[in-house]
Design brief:
Length: 226
Amino acid sequence: MHRNLLILGGSGKTGIKVVQQSLGRGHTVTAYARNATRLKEVIECEISALRERLSPILSQFEAIISVLGPNSLSYTGTEIAQLYEWMLAELRQLHIQQRPYLLLTSTQSIVNPEDGFDLFTKLHIFFIMTIAPGARRETMAIKDVFMREIKSQKTDVEWTVCRLNLLKDSGLPLEGGKAGYVGKNGWISTIDRAQLAFWLIREAEKEPTERKWVGKMPALWGDSVV
Ligand SMILES: NC(=O)c1ccc[n+]([C@@H]2O[C@H](COP(=O)([O-])OP(=O)(O)OC[C@H]3O[C@@H](n4cnc5c(N)ncnc54)[C@H](OP(=O)(O)O)[C@@H]3O)[C@@H](O)[C@H]2O)c1
């Protein structure tokens, strides 16, 4: 089950773990980062130049794992959402057998109609909206891109938007990642970055018939630290 993986955000805190675990599991990895000093096999450029770099090689990958996300309170712009919009269109240009599975992470500021009520999550969303309006704008732009996909009922590109709440680095066993909806089936608000990386890679390793979350926006969570 070797996979040729493209990992976007490879220099970020989760991205480094996705790259390391993927290599450890024998996959071929190409990573994208703005600043590649911490990586070996990389595409290093500003996000605005990425389309040109990716366009000729997208068909080489079986899966794209993107852990890009706004990472400062002063973040502005919707470049990540625009990249995904471009990528969906670009993937549609490829032969159906050559279209990689796009797995990406965002936040639980994207509310899913299947979510249950959780007061902490509501307060957290409000808090982020207040202190990081630019990050919120990017997240809502990502939501819009994939809501348009859902509304159009297109199923010709396989994607999953993984919604996260709080990320931690607690050194938990890799296998604890779970998917579902906020406030349901044992959901908790946290996931360990190593468990997140492992969950994403395991999804990317699945055969198309085994992929349960295609075209959906599940919440992910992990083991609680006791
Ligand atoms: N941290 C949390 O508690 C939390 C909560 C909910 C959801 N999430 C989501 O979880 C994922 C991973 O989070 P993390 O905290 O592990 O990641 P992180 O360390 O914040 O890394 C984010 C990555 O995105 C890149 N990036 C951000 N904006 C970019 C832009 N405009 N152009 C190019 N690259 C850009 C960063 O590049 P640079 O290294 O060059 O800045 C970095 O590689 C993200 O999708 C995030 O939205 C995180």
